[in-house]
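$ ./design --mode recover --in tokens.txt
reading tokens...
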């Protein structure tokens, strides 16, 4: 039996990178998928690649009303929601002195506020159809700081603890819903690829970034997708309020 058979999944940031890889892997494991992204065409392509078990929606995760609309659509179309994957995210480079308040708010709006909005919107539907799982994509930057990632470090550290608060609340209420966070290192996605030009091009950038990691390489989207599938499945039924760290040994240094 497929590991996610019978489960309906909403995944944000599903048009590319880790979100796309996770959506495709979850579909292979039997899930029904709702692929959400601001990139409507990209989300549609992922949904089409999956086939009849998926639909796509254009969504700005920083808008609470769009979360309400998405959940209403899911209830109408599928009748239930068992898994919520918060994969949408943005980067931001700057020290505490360089970072403007506008940039600070932009990064936190996507990486933190959207998780707050989305989880509040999803819980009423999810708790009617347990067991459920909420998976939040944080970062190793939520555990290990860098001087020039002030806003990004803050947003990813905050969402790490928000996931614990969600987990404890759902456990105390008896909802049958777990919540965990995932903390990858550099992953070969469009976000990280945006850094390649400043690092001498793709090949040189992958080599330079890989040298910072004990295992000697940056990650692939599927490396993270495997972890998210595990947390979404019943295989992780005793795991809540925890982190899965996928950093190639970086945080052990």
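writing sequence...
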């Amino acid at each position: 039996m497929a590991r996610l058979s019978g489960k309906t999944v909403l995944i944000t940031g599903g048009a590319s990178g880790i979100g796309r890889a996770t959506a495709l892997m979850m579909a292979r494991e039997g899930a029904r998928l709702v692929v959400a992204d601001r990139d409507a065409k990209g989300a549609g392509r992922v949904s089409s690649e999956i086939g009849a078990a998926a639909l796509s929606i254009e969504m700005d995760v920083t808008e609470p009303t769009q979360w309400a609309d998405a959940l209403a659509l899911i209830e109408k179309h599928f009748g239930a929601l068992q898994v919520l994957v918060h994969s949408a995210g943005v980067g931001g480079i700057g020290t505490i002195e360089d970072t403007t308040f506008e940039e600070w708010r932009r990064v936190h709006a996507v990486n933190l506020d959207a998780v707050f909005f989305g989880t509040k919107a999803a819980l009423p539907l999810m708790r009617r159809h347990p067991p459920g799982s909420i998976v939040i994509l944080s970062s190793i930057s939520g555990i290990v700081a860098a001087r020039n990632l002030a806003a990004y470090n803050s947003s990813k550290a905050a969402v790490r603890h928000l996931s614990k608060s969600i987990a404890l609340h759902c456990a105390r209420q008896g909802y049958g819903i777990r919540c965990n966070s995932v903390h990858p290192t550099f992953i070969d996605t469009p976000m990280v690829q945006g850094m390649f030009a400043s690092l001498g091009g793709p090949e040189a950038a992958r080599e330079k970034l890989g040298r910072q990691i004990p295992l000697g390489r940056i990650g692939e989207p599927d490396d993270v997708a495997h972890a998210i599938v595990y947390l979404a499945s019943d295989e992780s039924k005793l795991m809540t309020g925890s982190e899965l760290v996928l950093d190639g040994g970086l945080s052990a240094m």
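exit 0
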